[in-house]
Amino acid sequence: MARLGLGEAWRCTFANDFDPVKVATYHANFGGDDLRQGDVWQLSAADLPGQADLAWASSPCQDFSLAGARAGLAGGRSSAFFGFWKLVEALNAQGRAPRAIVLENVVGLLTSHGGQDFEALCAALAGQGYRFGALEIDAARFTPQSRPRVFVVASRQPRSELTGDSPFHTPGVRNAFERLPATLQASWLWWDVPSPPRRNTDLAAILEDDADVLWRTEQDTARLLSLMSPAHRKRLEQDARTVGAVFRRTRPSGQRAEVRTDGLAGCLRTPRGGSSRQTIVVAQGGEVRSRLLTGREGARLMGLPDSYVLPARATAALHVVGDGVAAPVVRWLALHLLEPLLAPAAPAIAAE
Question: Percent of the chain scored above 70 by pLDDT?
């Protein structure tokens, strides 16, 4: 999805993932042989061709997520970052380090272990000659999905004209900067990325037609409503058609179903259990119907075109998109930061 977001002006020379479903989906959409399936730790610099302008890494986020164990960079899954980083170090030793790097992860990266994990990441970047800064961007600025993510953008040759104030310098980002030691703050850059235009679609706009989807039984819907608090059920008691997205969550009082009717879906997850797959509810005039989110709807929430080939099974499709990065966010970063950052520098005008 990062490749799709970057666009056709970019050429991918190497990609890696160990998940066979994601690899098959990649080949179905992009073809070619640039993707290597396997553990990143098993790769060496010799596997990577030439010198890349950009290296993009979205390591598994479970160990940084508030919903996970918060194991941080020491966690077995998120340690994929260090598998990636050993390649950057080896490339740098050969004079082939990428000119820029983007590291994408959940917002929990900023605070994991009291900020120590983020500090370790920044120290790794600085140790290889990169200057860096972070942006917190919610995909809700672009698509009807609440999906805040942190993007750490690093460059070996930063440009001062690309720094300044940005709405994506959130309190979380500023606090993470303040926790860094002065030696790392000296390598920090405040990237200037503007706000996008106001989003003009909501959740209802990306859904399949009512007649084309499988609805749950009245009994199943009644069971779902019974898990809602009175305040949440009240959101579905409007005369006008109301579309909402529901997650099941475990609260101190037990399992609860929580619905949002603000035009946004909740953050997509990989559907490893029934409670992690979002439910769509449609209410009108006292009648409420419910069904599961489809794979195609999940892809639309990630900003993917309907031409994007998905696995046939809904669970597999949602696994692919739930682990991805929202393509329009990548495009916005490419347009306003990555492409200007990597463009050839204008020649200096000699004084007469």
Answer: 91
Q: Would you say residue 208 has pLDDT above 50?
A: yes
Residue 305 lies in a domain: no
d(CA 258, CA 247): 6
Same-domain check for residues 43 and 129: yes
Per-residue pLDDT tens for 17-49?
999 999 999 999 999 789 999 999 999 999 999
Give percent of the chain above pLDDT 90.
Answer: 81
Same domain, 112 and 237: no
Cα distances (angstroms) measured from residue 100 to each of 155, 170, 188, 219, 337 = 4, 22, 14, 54, 11
| Residue 325 φ then ψ, to 5° | -115, 140
Domain with 232, as residue range(s), is 209-293
Q: What is the DSSP string of 86-129?
A: HHHHHHHHTT---SEEEEEEEGGGGTGGGGHHHHHHHHHHHHTT
| 219 and 194 in a common domain | no
**Residue of 195, 282, 188, 286 whose CA lies nearest to 237:** 286
Give the three-class secondary structure for 35. Answer: strand
248 within a domain of the structure (yes/no): yes
Whether residue 223 lies inside any domain: the answer is: yes
